[in-house]
Structures
1.
Amino acid sequence: MSTIFEKIIAREIPAHIVYEDDLVISFLDISQTTTGHTLVCPKKAYASINDIPEDLLAHTIKVVKKIALACEKAFNVEGLNILSNNGAIAGQTVFHFHFHVIPRYVENDVLFKLTNRMNEVSSDEYKKRALLIKEAL
Ligand code: AMP
């Protein structure tokens, strides 16, 4: 089933496209969480970061940087969040891999904060978690 982004890429539905090349497209996120909130996605649909080929991912992140710099130039940006939701549990709603570029202007203009749980994690548990990741590489 084709995603809404494929419809944008095929010009079947409108979008405010700011950049495209053979492999990647970038357009304003309809939600405009903050001014200039932009999405960057490969034209070919991959559901998540686990599926996208590395060379295409590398090109996509280069375009993310291009868009981030353009937002800094275009708006009075104080900072940026670059994020990608992968999986429904992580908040992904469109299953066509993409990055969000979210310009930040004032404190709390986007309401998410990473919870600090360091007081709940023992030093053995840190070691165990790191080992599990290293072993899985
Ligand atoms: P995610 O929830 O990380 O999968 O991001 C999907 C994003 O796509 C959301 O932030 C939506 O606001 C955005 N979106 C959905 N439909 C459109 C559309 N037609 N044009 C632009 N952005 C869209």
Note: The pocket of adenosine monophosphate is lined by residues 4, 15, 27, 29-31, 85, 91-94 (CB under 6 Å).
2.
Amino acid sequence: MQKIDVKISNALNKIGQNAVSDMLPEVLAAKEHLLKGDAAGNDFLGWVDLPENIDGSMLASLKADVARLAAKSRLMVVIGIGGSYLGARMVIEALQSEFAAMDRSEKPYIVYAGHTLSEDYYAQLLKVLDHEDYTVTVISKSGTTTEPAVAFRIVKAHLVNKYGADEASKRIVAITDARRGALHEIAVQEGYPMYVIPDNVGGRFSVLTPVGLLPIAMAGYDIDKLIAGARDMRNICVNGNTLEDNPALMYAAVRNALYRSGVKVEMMVSCIPNLRYLAEWWKQLYGESEGKEHKGLLPHSISITTDLHSMGQYVQDGERLMMETMVRVEKPHATVPVPTDEQNLDGINYLVGKSLTEINDCAANGTIEAHVSGGVPVVEITVPTLDEYTVGQLIYFFEFACGVSGYTLGVNPFDQPGVEAYKKNMFRLLGKPGF
Ligand code: PA5
């Protein structure tokens, strides 16, 4: 089995190897809490066994719905926010062409809504939907979140206007709670196919439920391979009892050791643009899980080499606050040679014969050397290539490490009391009854 590699040798410039090794008893204890379900947040541990427990009949009906909807249209609007959208977007953007919007011949295409309240965004979306055949998936666990509710009302009105109420109902799928919430009620009343987000899986851990699986399958990716990758990584995370055997324990140990040494910010560094949404998903996963009781590393992200030309200055020379977690992909899917040029006016003939991946790797290695010498510890996470299987591995690896890391930090990694504060103010300002 291909394995995710977590390398910490470049993260030991601020702390010694012992500071990481000494974390083993604590991360093992945190792992036991996850497996035994005997600590805070234990009613939200459904994700731990999810790759083993995915209901086959749910999966078959989800695939049948995807096939039915794909036959109607090759464009789907996926409505959701936070944990109800970032996982699907992360997987799809990791796997699809960066230019998928312009090359629609290859696979069905997903557009997103419900993650913003920008008026112009919806005006622009509706303009596109005027001349596109489309279907809709609306996702909300609570079924009451304002942003997706507003987006669904707008898009549904457009859909009904375009196709009539009967056909509109056949173009909508709802993913929500099994029993409660406004979206559940609407779906029952309108007869939409409905998929359930299990009670014991929180939004940010829900990518391997229909929340992620339906949009990912709709975008043309193999969800069985994604689940297989997560399942294999689960075996490693659940059974590995040393830092060397268990990449999730290693990652949780090194980031907690660095936090204790005074590091405040963890920057995910993606080496290719396809990983931009891995960073967005990871920021929610770690920020919402650990940012409590005035504790936790602040998750931030940059992309290289792009951001070396902007944030690079701060990372090298600014306030010494941060560590980096660089996500590397060994093999690209294609090769693009650097053409030779007889005149060599740009002076880059010395690169001819090297692949762009070799050049990008040299940039990444040069960056690590520079940042380490500037006092920034760098953890490297390497996957052999980007496909459904390795992305499934990454999902489970980051989720398991997050649970272990949160318990090691001493917080409940599975609640999010802080996200309610803005909602109360927004409802009061909007004049919502009761606020
Ligand atoms: O992780 C979380 O709990 C949040 O980010 C939610 O996923 C987000 O607020 C959306 O909630 P809901 O699915 O209930 O609409």
Note: The CA atoms of residues 149 and 249 lie 39 Å apart.
